[in-house]
Write a structure and sequence with these properties.
The protein is an alpha+beta fold. It has 2 domains: 145 residues, no CATH class; 88 residues, Winged helix-like DNA-binding domain superfamily/Winged helix DNA-binding domain (Arc Repressor Mutant, subunit A). It is 47% helix and 30% strand. Strand 2 and strand 3 form a beta hairpin. It is globular and about 60 Å long. The mean pLDDT is 85.
Amino acid sequence: MIDLTMDMEQYDCPFIATTDDYEVSFAAVHWEFDEGARELETRLVVEGSSQPTLENGLDALQSHPGMNQCDLFRKRGDTAFIRTVIEETDAMGVIRANDGYITGPFRIAEGSETWEVGFDDKRIAGDALSELDRNNEFTVESRDVLALDDCFDLLENADAAAELLEGCRDLSDVERQTLSVAADSGYFEQPRDATLQTLADEFEVSDTAVSKNLRRGERKVLRRVVNALESLDSSPAGRTR
């Protein structure tokens, strides 16, 4: 299996056109392709730089000629959850014609889209990329060749991966930033390259405040790590180690 991460600019995509004109971004949480109608149904989270920007972005999306249906499920502040139905784009047609498939959620912002696309054969992947180049702008950000054992490992341990992802989502912005700066500055190294005072100076808070943020973040992440380890131990792959 060839897994490609691509930065895609489709000229006929309503989402890309909207993010070109407005400071909004889209993240897909579910998608389904209708073979007969040649349409893509998608549920997405939409984020705007402000509430008025979100409103303007949604209006532009609904009025785009490539948008067949756009339903608003929920909206709060600068975030919305929508369901859309769009016509098959040129790039989607190329991927499908070459037996490609989506391997991860796609994200759209600032006029481009991140795609995770898989192919079963390297030659077919090359043919698809050549075809895509005719009517689309794209960059292949990464290219991974996954062996069959790796694919089974990913599938069998999806619960553990989801647990770790939830651990990251549990973190507040302050906790995430504190852990990130602490790791980058060597706070967790032995011996330490940074101290609580170093981190406190970075965030312009007291030693006590930065220590609390670190401990809260560590507790949240470690709790999820332990759960993920238990999930790994109970998986078929874990039991055979």
